[in-house]
Amino acid sequence: MSPHASTAPDRPEVPKVVVTGATGAVGRHVARLLSELAGVLPTLLVRDTAKAAALGLSGTVSQGDYRDRNSLRAAFHGADTVFIVTANPLRPQDDESILAAASQAGVRHAVKLSWLGVADPGADDLVADWNRRSERVLHESGIPWTVLRIRTPMSNTLAWAPSIREHATVQAFGGGARTACVDPRDVAQAAVQILTEPTPHAGATYSLTGPQELSARSQAALLSQALGKQLTFIDLTADQARARWADRYGEQIADALLEGARRRAQGASARIDPTLEKLIGRPPATFAAWASDHTRHFS
Ligand SMILES: NC(=O)c1ccc[n+]([C@@H]2O[C@H](COP(=O)([O-])OP(=O)(O)OC[C@H]3O[C@@H](n4cnc5c(N)ncnc54)[C@H](OP(=O)(O)O)[C@@H]3O)[C@@H](O)[C@H]2O)c1
C-alpha cells in the first residue's frame, strides 16, 4: 500500500475527516464534536443511516460497510484524515479494507481506536490478538498514524439499562474487579484534536483511561445514587456470563470476553494513566459525572 497514492483527488480547502464507526460508543462523539467545529468537513461512514439519524448525527453521511470496498472508496474520496473503528475480531480484514481505501485516497493521517489489553503481555485472547494485528496493519500501511488504546468505555454500563429499568438490578460477572473505565466523550475529544492537528501525534500510541479504578459493583452504586433508586447487584457465574456473551457474540468471542474478565479480576485493567488529562487539558470525567449525564437511559 503506497502512502503517496498518485490517485489523490484535488483537495477542497476545508479538510475532510472521515469517521468510521460513527454510530459506535466513541465514534458518535467524534462525529458530534467534528460537526460543531468550523472549518472541517466530517463524513460519517455508517452502515445504518436510520441509526445515524436517530442519534442526531450531522455531517455528510456516507452509507457503507467495511465488506463493501466500493462504499469505502466513495466515502474516502478527497479525505485528509480518518478515525478508524473496527469491531469484529472475526473479521481482521476490515482494517485492511479501510486502510486500502484511505491509502488510495491519499489520506495523510489515521487515528485508530484500540484496546489497552494489547499492552498486557498476559493477554493472549482473540480480542487482544485482533487489536494487536490491527495496530500492526496500520503501522505497515504507510499512512502516518496515531493509536488510541482505551480502557472500558463507561457507556458499556448502558447494557445494564433494561434490567435496571425493569427490575432495579444489575447483573454482571466479576463484580469486584476494578477497571479504569473512561468516558467515551473524553476519548472523542482527544481523537478530534489529533484528527484536526495530527502532526505532533504522528507515530504515537496513547493509553487512555479514566481517573478512577472502579468495580462493576461501585459503578452500580454510583448509578444508584444518580438515579435516586436502590439497585441490587447480582453476580453472574462464569457459566452464566459466558452463555449470555455466546448468545450475543458467538462462542469464540464469548471465550475471549471471559478470559478478559478473568484478567480484570487479577487487576490487569486497574492502572490509571495520566495521558488523557495531558491531551485534553483537564481531568477526565468521573463515572459519577457520566452517570448523572445519562440517567434518562436507565429510568
Ligand atoms: N467495548 C469495549 O468494552 C471496549 C473496551 C476497550 C477497547 N475497545 C476497542 O474499541 C474498538 C471498537 O469496539 P466496540 O465493539 O466497542 O465498538 P462500538 O462502539 O460498538 O462501535 C463499532 C462501530 O463500528 C461500526 N461497524 C461495525 N461493523 C461494521 C461494518 N462491517 N461496516 C461498517 N461499520 C461497522 C458499528 O456500526 P453499527 O452501529 O451499525 O453496529 C459501530 O458504529 C475495538 O478495537 C475494541 O477492542 C472496546
TrEMBL record:
Q: Which Gene3D superfamilies does its entry note? A: NAD(P)-binding Rossmann-like Domain (3.40.50.720), UDP-galactose 4-epimerase, domain 1 (3.90.25.10)
The family database entries (Pfam families) matched by this protein are listed as:
NAD_binding_10
**Protein's organism:** Streptomyces indicus
Q: What name does this protein carry?
A: Uncharacterized conserved protein YbjT, contains NAD(P)-binding and DUF2867 domains
Pinpoint the NAD(P)-binding domain residues: 21-198
